[in-house]
Structure of Monocarboxylate transporter 12-B-like isoform X2:
Amino acid sequence: MGDSCSQFLPSYDSGIGRSEGLFFLQYQERFGSSAQMTAWPMSLMSTLNFCMGPITGALVSRYSVRTTLIMATLLTSTGLLLNGLAPNVYFLYFSTTLLGGFGRGLMSTVLLINLYFDKHRSLAHGLSSSGVGFGAFAIVPLVQFLFEMYGFMGAFLVIGALELNGLVTSMLFRPLRMHLKFLNAEKLYKKRLTNAEEGVALSRVQDDSDDMVVTESSQLGKCGNGGNFSGPSDAFIKDDDVESLQLQDEHEVSTSMRDRSRHRKNCCQSSLAVCFPVEHKRKGTEKGAETFHWHLLRNIPFLVFCFSNTFFLIAFKTAFTFLPSMAISKGLTKTEAALVLTISGALDTFGRIAIGFVMDIPACRPLRPYVFNMLLFFIAVASCVIPSLDSFAMYCVVSGAYGFMTGAFISQKMVVLVDILGREVMPSSLGISKFFQGMGTLVGPPFAGALRDALGSFDSSFYLGGACMFGSGLLLLLSNVLLKLQKSKQKTAS
């Protein structure tokens, strides 16, 4: 349920994120501000979004995924509604930066997938994050249509109202403790069913020797269920018994839920408990796990990986903030500029799903770091080519390739991080990595906007993005080399 439910929130939220280029045009037209000043609120919002990683992990652990996503939806929707009422560009620092940044930061789907999935994590990331590309494909044209039909204020009111649909999706997330309880009950049922099948097969040798049946049945009782069977006859589980075991598991779950409901004093408290469940309560006698793995700050390959992410986000954020403006400056209409983002989003979806299937193949898993390293160099080439484009068809081809490669890279970036460091330190490594990504979103668009104001063209912004993307590829290559040397050293020491 976690994977299917998680697709709406990233698809809509990322569709809004990919629409920031259209928002940039609307803000400039309404407030008459410079490119640098207009880019700052959205840049700070993305920075706050990434820096929220550790806080999101703590809220999910202390309360639940459902509670965290409800809070995220309410904050994001409120920010979008207030954008339509903004009297000047400075008000966006509250509505866009503060409310939007906190709201999007709480929608950490990467953390959710790693919590709900053990096997086929690559494929789960690819399928779940495919909603990002679908959102860009569907939401960007809708946003352009809303601005043309209802104007600045009306469009943001509709967009904010649509965001509230995330409340329904949030309620579909099963609390993790209940999810694990159902999984354990299913495993217990399958184990007992296996014992039943073994008992039926064992009963077929009863015609040969009753003594053999008694002996082997006793051994099955000791091995199959930890020695809890009282005698030979207990090793045989009939179909009716299997059904009763299943009913017993369901009864245990329902009894546990009834026991919790007895402590509710009234209907209001019970409703709040359903909407905002507590995932886990700490006991004073229990020692909590390590909240932050400080040793990661001394891991040189990991730190180089994080700096690579910083340069990647400088280029990535700059490209999707200024791509519509670049296309319009080259003679395209606003509708065509929106379609360029739409096509990029469509191929972004395909890239995420395709790379998820390919990288989940056992033979391909060791090659993940090297595949992603090559993707960065190809993205750098695409960034440098964009300023030379002069037709709608060429923009569609290049931006589509850009979307495919960036979607493939982003969807599996955290999977590579887990491969490098392991799942045990995932919350800490994710928080540190997102902090470095936030630095990239903080620097990229404002600096690129300053270049646009100084030089009068967006060409330099995309050349800057290409250089940063190339630098990101070099840093990731260095990280891979250092990691290999580190593993060889550890193997030699052991």
